[in-house]
Automatic annotation (TrEMBL):
NCBIfam families: ogt (TIGR00589). Keywords: DNA damage, DNA repair, Methyltransferase, Transferase. Its EC number is 2.1.1.63. Pfam families: DNA_binding_1 (PF01035), Methyltransf_1N (PF02870). It catalyses: a 4-O-methyl-thymidine in DNA + L-cysteinyl-[protein] = a thymidine in DNA + S-methyl-L-cysteinyl-[protein]; a 6-O-methyl-2'-deoxyguanosine in DNA + L-cysteinyl-[protein] = S-methyl-L-cysteinyl-[protein] + a 2'-deoxyguanosine in DNA. PROSITE patterns: MGMT. One of its GO terms (biological process) is DNA repair. This is methylated-DNA--[protein]-cysteine S-methyltransferase. One of its GO terms (molecular function) is methylated-DNA-[protein]-cysteine S-methyltransferase activity. Residues 1-21 are annotated as: Disordered.
Amino acid sequence: MNQQHTDPTPRTDLTPRDDLAPRDELTRLRADLARRAEASGDLDISYREVDGPLGRLLVAATPTGLLRVAFPGEGVDAVLTDLAARVSPRILAGGRRLDEPARELEEYLDGRRRSFDLPLDLSLLHGFRREVVASALPRIRYGQTASYAQVAALADRPRAVRAVGTACARNPLPLVLPCHRVVRSDGTPGAYRGGPEAKRQLLDLEAAAG
């Protein structure tokens, strides 16, 4: 993947809306994150929200690449707090580096894109989970599905079916790294970070476009 490093430039038209948490709580959170960022000088994370048929997705990126895609039910404040603790407290709303991820997500959800061409920051993935999410999942093609057991075999750990389920459930980059294509052995969708209805919508989208 071609990595592009761009400096964040906050834009007023990309300022997130706070529907997923009380405004006063998010205001306090952002003020706290800003204070911590100023003190730390750490690498920054840019974020924005993308509207679509699954609701308002939160997307976050570092200069390395796309770091996180979060569903509405995960909560803006919870996701930002987690990123501040695990990656960097320097979190900025908006930024040009999010334009391409937002565009590709919108195209995918509109049925006009079958794969993503984005630099990724995989710093939230480690060990076997990284092997499953970053290596095995991309091998499941658009419009196809694989069972948890089949993914375990793709990862050369055929007995690690439960661990595959955990890796999919904690995938920080759903849609882009397609854990929604992993289903139960009987063909039913199974659990999903965005909820079973979101998983069914994605599977139906790909089946219709295929």
